[in-house]
Design a protein that fits this description.
Layout (H helix, E strand, L loop, with lengths): L12 E5 L15 H9 L7 E4 L5 E3 L1 H9 L4 E7 L3 H14 L6 H14 L5 H8 L3 H11 L8 E3 L5 E3 L3 H13 L5 H8 L3 H12 L7 H7 L16 H8 L2 H4 L2 H13 L3 H10 L5 H29 L1
Parallel strand pairs: 2-4
Antiparallel strand pairs: 1-4, 2-3, 5-6
Helix pairs in contact: 1-2, 3-4, 4-5, 4-6, 5-6, 7-8, 7-9, 8-9
Length: about 325
């Protein structure tokens, strides 16, 4: 999302004539008279209200302003906010969601709709987190608006990064990258495929389960046929080399040598067996197993580097 406007400073306050202030561009659809009356009858000093410096429009504190008027006050303490009117409305929503009289569900939906028009590039999740409703509700509001909103190819998420709405091409690029380098991290693939790390992780998990990297809904929208995707096979230890090592007395006759042979034999499975094992892993275990496999791959890489170093020292 866009960088937030500077937050109002606690010491940036002033007494301002009530007559000079403009009413709030509030996310509230209706005023709550009972709350105003309660505030007007209390003896406690009312906290400063927040006002847009440029326009003197109230951002947060209309109930306090009306309570002060009922007390007969002609001036009120304000804190100033700097930013444009869109920033001011977003700040109003943030503050109304975090303190004072809670916004109703209707208020929150109305706020989501207005933010959507101010920032059509913001993702459903980003708007939902701001106004306090589900991203599915925000998505339904966006669909109802239809052509009243700009049709964008990308949206800015809560991570302040721009993400494509249709990740089909990115998912296909990521699947190819994972097949080329099964040890690649999700962040590396996400960067190269220009997708989010979350999407890259989903692609990796789908490949491990032998599924299409593109989810069914995206395939339906783009007409992609359903074809099972086979995971990239592990690079096997050549059978001839493994057979030779098995018969080598220096390995066969020592405990560490036999341990090494067991390690190598475990990697010497054929492709069909490899796929069968992958497909048998329960989906809820797949991420943990995949992570352990990557760690073991790193261990083998370190082992190979150590052997290469030894060879160079001996030769």
């Amino acid at each position: 999302m866009d960088a937030p406007a500077p937050a109002p400073q606690e010491d940036d306050t002033a007494m301002v004539s009530i007559a000079a202030l403009l009413p709030a561009n509030s996310p509230r659809l209706t005023e709550v008279d009972e709350h105003i009356q309660m505030l007007s009858e209390t003896d406690a000093e009312l906290p400063p209200i927040l006002v847009h410096r440029t326009t003197l429009r109230v951002i947060d504190g209309m109930h306090r302003l009306q309570a002060a008027q009922r007390r007969g006050a002609t001036a009120i303490t304000v804190r100033y906010f700097d930013g444009d009117e869109r920033d001011a409305f977003v700040m109003s929503v943030k503050l109304n969601c975090s303190h004072g009289l809670p916004l109703t569900l209707a208020d929150r939906k109305n706020a989501a709709l207005r933010i959507m028009h101010y920032h059509p590039e913001w993702s459903d999740r980003a708007i939902a987190a701001l106004v306090g409703i589900s991203d599915k509700t925000v998505g339904a509001i966006r669909r109802r608006e239809g052509d009243n909103l700009p049709q964008l190819a990308n949206r800015v998420g809560r991570d302040n990064e721009s993400h494509p709405l249709n990740t089909r091409e990115g998912r296909l690029r990521a699947s190819e990258l994972f097949r080329q380098n099964p040890n690649a991290t999700t962040r590396e693939v996400a960067r190269l495929a220009e997708i989010s790390a979350t999407t890259a992780k989903d692609v990796r998990n789908r490949l491990l389960r032998g599924e299409n990297p593109v989810p069914p809904k995206q395939r339906e929208r783009t007409g992609i046929a359903e074809h099972p995707v086979r995971p990239a096979p592990v690079r096997q230890v050549p059978a001839v080399e493994l057979s030779r090592l098995r018969t080598d007395p220096s390995l066969r006759m020592s405990q560490t040598g036999r341990t090494l042979l067991r390690w190598l034999e475990a990697l010497g499975v054929d492709e069909n067996e490899w796929i069968s094992v992958v497909e048998s892993v329960p989906s809820h275990c797949a991420p943990a197993v995949a992570e352990m496999a990557r760690r073991r791959a790193d261990d083998w890489q370190s082992f190979a580097v150590a052997l290469d170093r030894r060879i160079r020292l001996v030769s």
